[in-house]
Amino acid sequence: MTTEYATSRAVHSTLRRLLAPWFLANGWKKRPGSSCAFVREASSGHWCLWVQVSQWGNSLGGNSFTLNLVSQAVADSALCGGPDARVLVTLSDEDKALGFEIAQQIAARVPIPPPSHQVYEWAKLPGKEGEQWQHTIANLQKANPEAWEPSIDIWLNYYAVADIEQWAGFLLARLPYLLLQSNDAQQVLRADHPAFGRPVT
User: Fold this and answer.
1) From CA 106, how far away is CA 119, in angstroms rounded?
2) What's the maximum distance between 2 C-alpha atoms anywhere in the chain?
3) Which helix (H) or strand (E) holds 148?
4) Helix and strand tally (H, E) in the chain?
């Protein structure tokens, strides 16, 4: 049985399916025209939470995604990201440790390419180019601990849909905390919706 690499479309559809019930139950709406994004009215505009998939992934080593939370004047404004919009940077040290464990589990499931794969020819190239491909092969099933250090822009690794589903479970348990810690959303969301972010009993 082979593990099928999840396309960007699969990432968005999987996360939309699994995260939407929580957002819709907590005062958010699906953002029109977006694959996986949610908006919530604020006293001055809207808050938008959207999923960003990295443009650098591939079917050899997998890919990654992250969450952005931005303030917008209108709900259909152009989406923007960047370090200031990142949600996952606010994870607690305990959650980062758990996140790294999940990242390791997912990395260990990345399939090793068959001997006929062209990557082995690339690894024979002279100089740094060949060395880079050798490094890629050697680390296909390893998660990078430096990616989970303090103040690092965290991206969640995946290869297959099952990996995305595993991250969705991790995120659902932490969404209220993450959203209230990002940017100045804590004051705005609590002012507009005092019940938002209260612990689930």
Assistant:
1) 21
2) 61
3) none
4) 7, 5
Q: How far is the C-alpha of 95 from the C-alpha of 101, rounded, in Å?
A: 10
Distance CA 197, CA 132 (A): 45
User: pLDDT tens across 69-119, in order?
Assistant: 888 777 677 777 777 788 998 899 999 999 999 999 999 999 999 999 999
Reference 11, options 59, 48, 64; nearest CA is 64
Residue 133 main-chain phi, psi, to 5 deg: -70, -35
Instruction: For the chain of 201 residues, list the mean pLDDT of each consecutive stretch of 10.
Output: 85 96 93 86 84 94 94 73 84 95 98 96 96 96 94 94 98 89 50 41 29
**Any residues with CB less than 8 A from the CB of 14 and at least 6 apart, and which?**
6, 161, 164, 165, 168
pTM of the complete model = 0.87
H/E run at residue 131: helix 127-138
The predicted structure's pLDDT at residue 124: 97
* Side chain identity, residue 147: A
CA dist 69 and 12 (Å) reads 16
